[in-house]
Specification:
CATH class of one domain: Alpha Beta
Shape: rod-shaped
Number of strands: 8
Radius of gyration: 60 Å
Family: Belongs to the methyl-accepting chemotaxis (MCP) protein family.
Subcellular location: Membrane
Largest sheet: 4 strands, antiparallel
Helix content: over 70%
Distance between the termini: 32 Å
Protein name: Methyl-accepting chemotaxis protein
Number of helices: 10
Strand order of the largest sheet: 3-8-7-6
Organism: Pseudidiomarina planktonica
Structural class: alpha+beta
InterPro entries: MCPsignal_dom
Length: 525
């Protein structure tokens, strides 16, 4: 016994060391370490209490059996059973706490994983924004350079246009002078033409007078003919000169009009280029301001991108650490589950051995009810009311339009009609019983107790509690109730509400085949 005690202490110390290691990966958070230490202390105390009660009481029962008789042994066995029940409750609470912590850790790892992915995405987007901002800043700088160059070119063009305006004005003045001189020449040609006409008239009169003079006027006639011929040529030349001068006059007039129009257009163009110079100056100023702002933005984004990259790396490292901690927590959870299973086995063994155990009464109710269900189903097969294929069917048809989900099977209507009398009788036999139901290996319950078979209201939250028939209770506890083939299975668990429940189930066989189980849920005795 002493060596066994030492072995137990070594095991307890090893478990304490394992649990103490749990605090090392809780990110050194004080409240988490405190919680973990409390769990460690509770686990050691409970394990020591359970082991001491089992060994010391068993030893005392064995030692005193011969002296005090069977009655005293039964009393001791009852005490062991009572202590084992308390230990089972404590183990269930411990398992629930560890499982809850494990769920929190899993959720934290999942959320941190999302945060890592989001952080990486933000970092990548920040890098894209930084690249884009740099490109836009470079484009802004090019815009500034182009604006400055354009402003200079337009200024040069404006100066050239102004010079063209001056030249066009001088040309217009020159053309106007030519037009005036052409007008003067026309006036002179008119005078010459008048003189030629008068000369021609005088030559004609001279010819007439010379003819009258006869022989004496013959020489004068020759002179008159020459004068008339000269006047004719002068008149012809004057006409030709007049035509040329008229043409020059018209062309210079047209040229003057064109030059005036050109001058006006050049002046308007000069005004336009002046406006362009002003606008390009404004654009250059705005481009310079924008380029400076974009440079500042790119610099800030670059700094943020670096910080985001560091944060993403830190989150990745924390995620890796939490994943490692999650694996360790899974191991602890598995060990707690194993401890819970051992407590269940011990308590079940004591229930089988002690006919006076409070749990034995629940077992007797469950076994008797299971026998009645077996007889009912066997009779239904023999009468043909159910076929074996229908009874053992695992084909669950979803009931449309109902939440939470409900299912129908080939045997649902039969169970709904026949099971209440057996199940309600089981509930009424002990005040601690909360429910007594028949379940298949998958956790399907065709008919629940009357208290949980209220009419559907359409309110999901109300129907979740008020109507539990045709539901699938496939949680860990529910699945085990209908799938095990042990003489009995006594589970102890803690609800989300904090309420501790015992769940005792026994198998149901029909025609030598395992069908499911009869399950009783009850408050601690």
């Amino acid at each position: 016994m002493k060596h066994t005690r030492v072995g137990f202490l070594l095991i307890t110390l090893g478990l304490a060391l394992v649990l103490q290691a749990l605090t090392l990966w809780l990110l050194e958070t004080p409240w988490l370490q405190l919680l973990c230490n409390l769990v460690i202390v509770a686990a050691i105390v409970l394990l020591n209490q359970w082991y001491t009660a089992r060994n010391d009481n068993a030893a005392e029962v064995q030692t005193n059996a011969g002296a005090a008789g069977q009655a005293d042994a039964n009393s001791r066995l009852a005490d062991v059973a009572k202590n084992s029940g308390s230990n089972a409750i404590s183990t269930a609470e411990l398992s629930h706490t560890i499982t809850s912590l494990n769920k929190v850790l899993h959720n934290s790892v999942a959320r941190l994983g999302n945060a890592v992915r989001n952080s990486n995405t933000v970092s990548e987007r920040a890098q894209d924004i930084y690249q884009f901002s740099s490109e836009v800043a470079a484009a802004g700088e090019q815009t500034l350079q182009i604006s400055v160059t354009g402003q200079r070119q337009v200024q040069q063009l404006t100066a050239e246009i102004a010079e063209m305006v001056k030249e066009s004005r001088r040309a217009a003045t020159t053309v106007a002078g030519l037009r005036d001189k052409a007008d003067q020449i026309l006036k002179v040609t008119d005078v010459i033409r008048s003189i030629a006409d008068q000369t021609n008239l005088l030559a004609l009169n001279a010819a007439i007078e010379s003819a009258r003079a006869g022989e004496h006027g013959r020489g004068f006639a020759v002179v008159a003919d020459e004068v008339r011929s000269l006047a004719a040529r002068t008149s012809t030349a004057t006409v030709e000169v007049g035509d040329l001068v008229e043409a020059i006059h018209q062309e210079t007039t047209s040229a003057a009009s064109i030059m005036d129009l050109l001058s006006e257009q050049v002046e308007r163009q000069s005004a336009t280029t002046g406006t362009m110079v002003t606008q390009l100056g404004d654009i250059a100023g705005q481009a310079e301001t924008m380029e400076a702002q974009l440079r500042n933005i790119a610099s800030s984004v670059g700094d943020n991108q670096q910080d985001l990259g560091e944060n993403a790396q830190l989150l990745t490292e924390v995620e890796a650490e939490l994943l490692n901690q999650q694996q360790q927590m899974d191991t602890v959870t598995s060990q707690a589950t194993g401890l819970e299973a051992q407590a269940e086995q011990l308590l079940a063994l004591l229930v089988e051995s002690d006919e006076n155990s409070p749990h034995r009464q629940i077992y007797d109710i469950a076994r008797h009810s299971a026998d009645r269900v077996e007889a009912l189903l066997t009779a239904a097969l023999q009468s043909g009311e159910l076929t074996e294929a229908q009874l053992f069917s695992r084909n669950y048809t979803t009931v449309a339009g109902v939440e939470p989900k409900k299912f129908e099977t080939p045997y649902t209507e039969f169970f709904d009609r026949e099971l209440p009398r057996i199940q309600e009788a089981a509930v009424e036999q002990n005040s601690h019983v909360v429910f007594a139901i028949t379940t298949d290996p998958n956790g399907y319950v065709a008919r629940h107790n009357n208290a949980f078979n209220q009419p559907l209201t359409g309110n999901q939250q109300q129907d979740l509690v008020g109507n539990r028939s045709r539901r699938m209770f496939d949680d860990k506890t529910g699945r085990r109730c209908g799938s095990h083939t042990h003489k009995l299975l006594l589970q102890t668990y803690k609800r989300d509400t904090g309420e501790v429940m015992h769940d005792l189930s026994v198998p149901i066989h029909v025609n030598g085949k395992h069908w499911g189980g009869f399950r009783i849920g009850y408050h601690p005795l």
